[in-house]
Predict the structure.
Amino acid sequence: MGNKKILGSCDDCTTNNKQVEYCTDFVADRKSQAKFCKECDARIEEKYKLCILAAGKGTRNTSIDSLHKSLLPIENKAVISHIIKSVPNTVEIVIAVGYKSDQVKSYVKHVFPRRDITFVDIDNFDGPGSGPGLSLLKCKEHLQTPFIFTSADTIVKESFVFDELEENWLGVSHVEMEDSLKYCLVKGSKYLDKLYFGTGNRAYIGMAGIYDYKDYWKSLEDHKIIKDEYQVIHGFDGMDKIRLVDFTWFDTGNDESYENTRKHFPKEVVAVKNKESIFIDEGKVIKYFTDSDKVTKRIKRTEFLNGYCPKVTKLNDNMYSYDHVPGKLFSNILDDNILKDILSFYHNKFSIKRFKKSDKFLTNCIRIYKTKTYDRIKFFENSRLDKIEYINGVKVSGIKELLDRINWDSIYKNAIPSYFHGDFQPENIIHDGNDFKLIDWRESFGDSLDVGDLYYDLGKLYHALIINGQIVLKKGYEYSLKDNNAYISYITKSNLLFLLNYFEKFCKNNNLDWDNVELLGILQYIGICSLYQDFHEGKYGEFLFLLGKYLLTKKLNNERIN
C-alpha cells in the first residue's frame, strides 16, 4: 500500500472548482483504490466517459423495418436511451454513428438536449475493414481518459459498474452452449485469460471498462481483421489484469433475442408494429414510420384537427415528435358524464361540418373500405384459420366469401364527407380535466388530407370499445383450436361497455346508421389483423382474424352482436 499526491477538483470542497491536493490509497490490483480530498475528506469519484458504438447496420434484427438498431423500442423507449440513462447525468457521452445516423442523432438530441453528448461520424460503417474496432478508434481523440464502451444493442440489469471506473473490466454473461457460436467467448475466472470464437458458456457482451486507456489504444491500433471486421477485442491484448464482471445481459441484436428482451421489459404502453413505432421518452412522444410520406402528411394534417392535437416537430424524414400530453387516458375514465361528453365533443368539432360528396371522396371510400380490406386478407386467406368451420359454435365461411356478401355500395351511399381524425379510439383521447386532446391521428383518408368519412371515425371508435389496447397488452384475449372449431374470448372494460351502449343511442338520436357503424367497426378487425404478425408471436393478429370472421358472420346473418 502507498500514498500518491495528485492534483484534482473536489465539488464538495470549500475551494470548489480549484485545483486541490488529494491522496490516492491503493493496493496492487487497484480493486480497493479510493481517492479523498485533502481539504474536506470527501470521496472523489473517478471521472470517465461512455462511448456507445452505433455505426453498424444491424442486419440481424428486422423487427421494425428500416429503424436503426439502437432505436428499437424497449418499453417504448429506444435501446440507446436505456444505455444513456444507465450512467450518471454528469458523465460525458461519445456516440459513434454511421448507418442512418440522422435517425440516431435527431432522436438523442431531442430526448437528451441537456446531456453532454458528442457524435463521431464513421464513414466506413459497412463492408471489409469496418466494424466496432474501427468505430471505437475513430473516437480516440474524445476518449483520452478512462472510459466505458458498449455496443448499441446491449442492455444490462446491473448499474454498479457505472458509479465509477477504478480498473479495467470486461462484461460477460452466461449463454447456452447451442447459441455460443454467435458470440465472442471468454476464458478465465476472476480475470481474463483469453477471448476466442467457438463453443462455450461464457460470452463477451460487447461492453467493457477501460482504465488504462493508453495501453488499450496502443493495442487496438495494432489490430487484426476477423470475419472482415475490425474488432474491439484486440485492444485488450496489451493490457494486464482485466477483471471479468458478470452481467444480466439483454441482447437486442437479433430478432429472437430482441423478442426475449421485450418479455423481460413488459411495460409497453403501445403495441409494436413492423413498419411503425411509438416512443414515450423523457416527456416526449416520438412517432416513427418506415414510410416517410406518412410523417409529412401527419404533420400537414394538424391544420385540419381544429387545434385539438399537440404541436408537432419533425425530427427527420421518418420521425416527428410532440410533448407528452398531460391528463387522463380516456379508456381509464370512469365518470359516466365525461364518457358521454366525448361524443358531443366529436360531433361539435368534427362531424358538424359536412362537405359535398365528390367523385374523389367516393373513390377514397372504395380504396379505404373495399380495396384495402381485400388486400390485407391475403395473408390469412385459405390458411388453416380461414378453413375453420365454426367459431364459438357459429358456422363461418372463408374470409373472401364473407367479404363478397357485403353490400359495399350501401357503405359508399351512407358515407358522410366531414373532417376526420382517422383513429378515433379511447387510447388516442386524453382528458385534461376540462377538455379533450387527440393524438395519433391518421395521415389521410385515401389521398385526402382534409375530408374523410364520418363513419370511418365512428367505426374506429366502435371496434376499440370492444377490444381495448390496454387489455390487449395484458393479453386479455385468447383463442383455442380443436379440429374444425375455434373458441375465442376477450375482456371488455366496463366503462367502455357503458360508452358502447350509450354510443348506440347517440347514433340513433342523431340519425346515424348504427348498422353501418357496427359493420365498419368489424371490418377494422379484419383490416388490421395482418399488421400484428409479430405481436405476441403473431397470436394477436390471429385472434383479430377469428374475431372479425365471427362478428362479420353474425352481422351478415342479422344477429345481435352485443
Notes: Residues 1-9, 14-35 have pLDDT under 50 and may be disordered.
